[in-house]
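Here is one such protein, fold included:

. . .
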Amino acid sequence: MSLVHMKDLLNHAYAHGYAVGAFDVVSLEFVEGVMAAAERSRAPVILSLAESQLEHYAFELLMSGVEAAARRSSVPVALHLDRGANLEAAVRAIRLGCNGVMVDASQSTFSDNLAHTKTVVEMAHACGVPVEGDLGYIPDATDINAQGHPATLPYTTVAEAKGFVERTGVDFLEVSIGAEQICPNSKAKLDIQRLRSINRALGIPLAIHCRVRIDDDQFRRLIVHGVAKINYFTALAEAANAAIRAQARSAPGAGYLDLVQGVGAAISAEAERCMRVWGAAGRAAEVLACCRPWAPVEHLIIHNVIGISEKEVTAMMIEGQQTLSTIPGVRSVITGKAMREHAQYRYCWQVRFAAPEVIDSYHRHPDYAAFTNRRFRPVADREISIDYAMESL
């Protein structure tokens, strides 16, 4: 199992002068292609799911495949929510297995962005999950003028970046310096001096959203000046599109499976090229040696009851599942009854936490206190509880 703490992963990249690719995945072909590239190049990697792309896939279903791929990997992997819309999206992503989240309020006012991000940081940190803030600006097609040129878009300022990080407590910051512009037919114009100044002022891993053609030398300059996370999707999608078009030309009557046959290999080749250019290749062993493994915690309770009927016990357990499963950092709540009627302990609860930090935040949460004080403690008898880390052989 090679899921690792995302903060440890990016701090290592920042300290050692390389960048980790955060590749947005939209299907299993993307997941398999990116992971094959990471395994071949022995590179740490971040698998991202972007909320802005949810119309194209079911988040919960794809997240199951992403987490499975990460857990069977031999290279360090982190799982990230990219461009989360709000607090609820971040809570959901952590419940489904993400160990890094990004809240995207960059197109709001600075004060609103700060307030929304701070709320997410407080929740996520209580779950042991780092947060990427955003002071960048991601354009869309409406930002291209009639001549096909990008509009002039706001760049991140040093003063705003410094104030934002200090007041929100974000762990990483995505900045706008030109890599996010839409320039279909021209090389990116990057404001490296601005990036240098932001890096000196903050001293934390920086991220960019790569939407333009950036050559290898430009990537290296970005990394030298603090970029440790590169959010990357456009070029992967273009590689997939090219593979499908090539297959369609060579076999006009091809069916779906034949058309997508080369997609995974095309994505994998582009991802591996990036990993090598960005300096992540060959880093897997040293990253695994210094990063904390990311593993869920099980909170197990066994007990008997006094003073209520079997029907009332069932109702209490259903209410508990519904209430406790909404607490941030809780991944699942399972209840059960002993198969033998005269067992020493009759009932059990298995609550899975995203990380050890959730143990404390869960017990402090008002919904937990309200349920246990009103419904559970008055009837629980001979209660035994234990928290244990999940390990896989």
Summary: Residues 141-151 have pLDDT under 50 and may be disordered. The longest strand covers residues 380-389.
